[in-house]
Amino acid sequence: MPELPEVEVVRRGLVSWVRGRTIESVDVLDPRSIRRHALGVEDFIGNLQGATVSDVVRRGKFLWLPLVDGSAHQQAAGNGQAPPSRVALMAHLGMSGQLLMQDAGVPDEKHLKVRLHLSPSAGMPGQLRFVDQRIFGGLFVTALVPTDDGGPGGLAESPLPLIAGEASHIARDPLDPAFSFDRFYQRLRARKTGLKRALLDQGLVSGIGNIYADEALWRARLHYARPTDKLRRADAFRLIDSARAVMLDALDAGGTSFDSLYVNVNGASGYFDRSLNAYGREGEPCKRCTAAGIHATIRREQFMNRSSYTCPVCQPRPRNGRW
DNA sequence: AATCCATCCTGTATGC
DNA sequence: TGCATACAGGATGGAT
Fold first, then answer.
1. Which family does the record claim for this protein (predicted)?
2. Is-catalytic flag, A196?
3. Chain C bases under 7 Å from protein CB?
């Protein structure tokens, strides 16, 4: 499922295909995929038509394409100054969203929701398509607002000092050079909840979903129900360090895919699922315990209405755990 | 005020 | 074979 590494793979894949290209027209095939655009389909299309994509930026699992007005772009070419971007096309992949570059001749995907026709560019596909089976994801146009802390962060090369309004409540992710562990730890301790719930809270630390939460907790040898308000600094540090390491590894592998639901912009799957240590391994031996000569089996439990995978030996449940 | 959780969706797998 | 149920889960808004 798309978490930080998968979204970053999409961002990197997308940027060279769409930067500098103009959106010539837009087909909204299923309005449910733009339900977060409150002003409706016509307004959505009107905002995009004629605009030029200046970049692809990410914060947590939110991805957006800052837009430059077509006429402003023309003027900028004349005086050599880049016009300020004030709106962006926002995308969230949700559970099953895909952003695909496709040639015009490629038949519609079964769950094609929105199609952007881009200005022709030599050797590049003509369309950017949003495909989404479960419709948890979506597209919408949002205002860009100033940030006073150096821009949206993420891993973009040169992000504008502006952030999409709907992403301004999202914390920085552990791979962001501006991520502050001290601030994270301070806010973590102030919460009275369980550790995994906190890890999944995008306002505290972003980019982590169910898969990488379980992987980071396993790697740090911490149980998901450990109380946040008592967690030692060293444990919290190891947890963030683990999240960072596992997500960097996943990024190198092109992301995690279990099926064709998550693919990069070319339709290819990542292969990080082969490297998972906890997630999806119910009944299989814990690799770390096995290496130490101990017999232990990964356990699956229902938690927050979804599955959590832990090793009962090296991630012992706390006595006063919090859900 | 902080925390929690039902809800939005559809395709696939499994059970009876 | 067919029908029913469980499951996958990110973000949000309303409830507690």
1. Belongs to the FPG family.
2. no
3. 7-12
Task: Tell me: is residue A191 an annotated ligand-binding position.
Answer: yes
Please give the protein residue whose CA is closest to the C1' of the nucleotide C9.
A95
pTM of the model: 0.91
A273 CB below 7 A from strand C atoms:
no
User: Residue A283, CB, less than 7 Å from strand C?
Assistant: no
Enclosing H/E stretch for A99: strand A97-102
Q: Which domain holds residue A50?
A: 4-167
Same domain as A128, residue A200: no
Is residue A61 among the annotated active site residues?
A: yes
- Measure, in angstroms, how far nucleotide C14 C1' is from residue A304 CA: 17
Based on its alpha-carbon atoms, the radius of gyration of chain A, rounded to whole angstroms, reads 21
Closest CA to A68 of A56, A82, A52: A52
Please give the distance of CA A64 from its chain centroid, rounded to a whole number.
Answer: 11
Boundary-marking domain end, from A167, A201, A221: A167
- Backbone angles phi and psi of A230, in degrees to 5: -120, 0
Q: Choosing from A110, A274, A306, A319, which is the catalytic residue?
A: A306
Full pLDDT tens readout for chain A, 323 residues: 789 999 999 999 899 999 999 999 999 999 999 999 999 999 999 999 999 999 999 999 999 999 998 755 455 555 655 556 689 999 999 988 999 999 999 999 999 999 999 999 999 999 999 999 999 999 999 999 887 666 777 666 556 678 888 898 999 999 999 999 999 999 999 999 999 999 999 999 999 999 999 999 999 999 999 999 999 999 999 999 999 999 999 988 876 655 445 556 665 556 677 689 999 999 999 999 999 999 999 999 988 878 999 999 999 999 888 77
Q: Does A187 participate in catalysis according to the annotation?
A: no
CB atoms within 10 A of CB A99: 28
